[in-house]
Amino acid sequence: RGVGGVKMAAGSGGPAARELFAEGLLQFLRPAVRQLDGHVHAVRESQVELREHIDSLATELCRINEDQKVALDLDPYVKKLLNARRRVVLVNNILQNAQERLRRLNHSVAKETVRRKAMLEAAGGYPQGLPGK
C-alpha cells in the first residue's frame, strides 16, 4: 500500500502518484529528523556541562595539590581529567557537525516539500479524495 491508503505497485502510477508518495515520504522523515536534531542538541548541552565540571574539578585538584603541606602527587589525576576533557570536546565537535548536517537535511526536506506541493497545486491540485495541506 502507498501513502494515504493509495495502492501503489512498483513502477505503476503516473507522476501524481509518485509525487504523492514523495510527499508522504518527506512528511514521514521530517518528524524523525527533528527528533534526532533535538536529541543531538540535548547531548551537546550535556557535553558542555560535563566539560565545565571537568574543568572545575581539575582546577580544584590543582588548588588542593598546591595547598597541601604533604606532597600529594595529583598530577596524574589532573592529566587524566584533562584527557577526559579533550575527549569530551572531540565528541562535542562530532555532535556539532552531525547536528549541522541534520539541520541542512531538515531544511532540504522542508524545501522539497514546498516545491512538490507547489508542483502538485500547479498540476491541478491534489488527487481526488485527498485533502490539500
TrEMBL record:
Cellular component GO terms, alphabetical: BLOC-1 complex; BORC complex; synaptic vesicle
Coiled-coil region(s): 81-115
The keyword Coiled coil appears for this protein: yes
InterPro entries linked: Snapin, Snapin/Pallidin/Snn1
GO biological-process terms attached to the record: endosome to lysosome transport; intracellular protein transport; lysosome localization; lysosome organization; regulation of synaptic vesicle exocytosis; synaptic vesicle exocytosis
Record carries keyword Coiled coil: yes
Highest taxon of source: Eukaryota
Keywords tagged on the record: Coiled coil
GO molecular-function term, one example from the UniProt record: SNARE binding
Annotated PANTHER family: SNARE-ASSOCIATED PROTEIN SNAPIN
Entry's family note: Belongs to the SNAPIN family.
Name of the protein: Biogenesis of lysosome-related organelles complex 1 subunit 7
Name of the gene: Snapin
